[in-house]
From TrEMBL:
Gene Ontology molecular function: any one: DNA binding
InterPro entries on file: Homeodomain-like_sf (IPR009057), Transposase_8 (IPR002514), Transposase_8_domain (IPR052546)
Species per Swiss-Prot/TrEMBL record: Caenibius tardaugens NBRC 16725
SUPFAM superfamilies: Homeodomain-like
A Pfam family assignment: HTH_Tnp_1
GO terms (BP aspect): DNA transposition
Protein name: Putative transposase
Amino acid sequence: MKRKRFSTEQIVAVLKQAELGLPVADLVRQVGITEQTFYRWKRQYGGLESDQVRELKQVVEENVRLKKLVAELSLDKAVLQDVLSKKFPGRRS
């Protein structure tokens, strides 16, 4: 079975349809997802508006970028400490 990727805007639209009274069983069949996926989306995105979803997406992207930056800087620090300890064997960090 081919796995579909839904944008956060599409997910919020599906959740809004459920809030308007469309039965969950009909909605998940129409969209092509499982009930488990629907309830996971509801737990994660429930109560969000589309502008909040965009903001959430931006924050997540920035978080990923910052984590990558911290990892790179930590690696640079470890390499520099290793070089320093080899150059001056008696020095403690």
